[in-house]
Design a protein that fits this description.
Layout (H helix, E strand, L loop, with lengths): L5 E5 L3 H13 L3 E6 L2 H11 L3 E4 L8 H11 L4 E6 L4 H10 L3 E4 L4 H12 L4 E2 L3 H14 L1 H6 L7 H11 L4 H8 L3 H15 L4 H10 L7
Parallel strand pairs: 1-2, 1-3, 3-4, 4-5, 5-6
Helix pairs in contact: 2-3, 4-6, 8-10, 8-11, 9-10
Protein name: Response regulator transcription factor
Keywords: DNA-binding, Phosphoprotein
InterPro entries: CheY-like_superfamily, NreC/VraR/RcsB-like_REC, Sig_transdc_resp-reg_C-effctor, Sig_transdc_resp-reg_receiver, Tscrpt_reg_LuxR_C, WalR-like
Length: 220
């Protein structure tokens, strides 16, 4: 039997926070921490080391967007799933730009939320219907801007780094990539870290965005 997905729940409303944590626990997840605001989330996450951080964006003095960046700077392999009352396009794009792997509105059912948590933990992006097209469309729009193409300085990646990056963009884990390319988990992680350093990025979500913008994400 597979291990339960570990989750941290971040929301400034105690009843909502506790209710979501209870629902996830009853459905087989393991809630390793909760936090009432962005600052607490960034402080607590490194010790809890959740696979998935489920969080709101409206968290008081410090925004959820800042919390996403702060958490992923410390835990680059953790995935962030935003659960927000807002479906505004600007909020969605800000969250994804900060590194979120998914975005659901709070009208989602408990079953939809559970499915999203498992998919996010498995490396797949998840968005409320209608938002996935928005995100991909925005990436493609940015990549197509003439000035962006002409002025961009693209760091040189090795053939193997590019191959690993393409598989990361498909949502594959280091173990899956290693099996696909007949490499050790340590070697795959080394390629990922080298690529992050070369591109001056901080986490896998940013790598996925880069791969889409550069046209690396396609293919088998």
């Amino acid at each position: 039997m597979s291990e339960p997905v570990t989750v941290m729940v971040v929301d400034d409303h105690p009843i909502w926070r506790e209710g979501v944590a209870r629902d996830l626990t009853e459905r087989g997840c393991r809630v390793v921490a909760t936090a009432p605001d962005a600052d607490a989330a960034v402080r607590i996450a490194p010790a809890a080391r959740p696979q998935v951080v489920l969080m709101d964006l409206n968290l008081g003095a410090t925004s959820g967007v800042a919390a996403i960046s702060g958490i992923l700077a410390k835990l680059p392999d953790t995935r962030v799933l935003v659960l927000s009352a807002s479906g505004e396009h600007a909020d969605v794009l800000d969250a994804v730009t900060a590194g979120a792997s998914g975005y659901l509105v709070k009208s989602a059912s408990a079953e939809e939320l559970l499915d999203a948590v498992h998919r996010i933990a498995g490396g797949f992006p998840v968005f409320t219907p209608g938002l996935a097209g928005l995100v991909l469309g925005e990436y493609r729009r940015l990549a197509a801007e003439p000035a962006r193409r002409e002025n961009a300085t693209v760091p040189a990646l090795t053939e193997r780094e590019t191959e690993v990056l393409r598989l990361v963009a498909k949502g594959m884990t280091a173990k899956q990539i290693g099996e696909r390319l007949v490499l050790s988990h340590r070697t795959v992680e080394s390629h990922v870290q080298n690529t992050l350093r070369k591109l001056q990025l901080h986490n896998r979500s940013q790598l996925v965005r880069y791969a889409i913008e550069q046209g690396i994400a396609g293919g088998d």
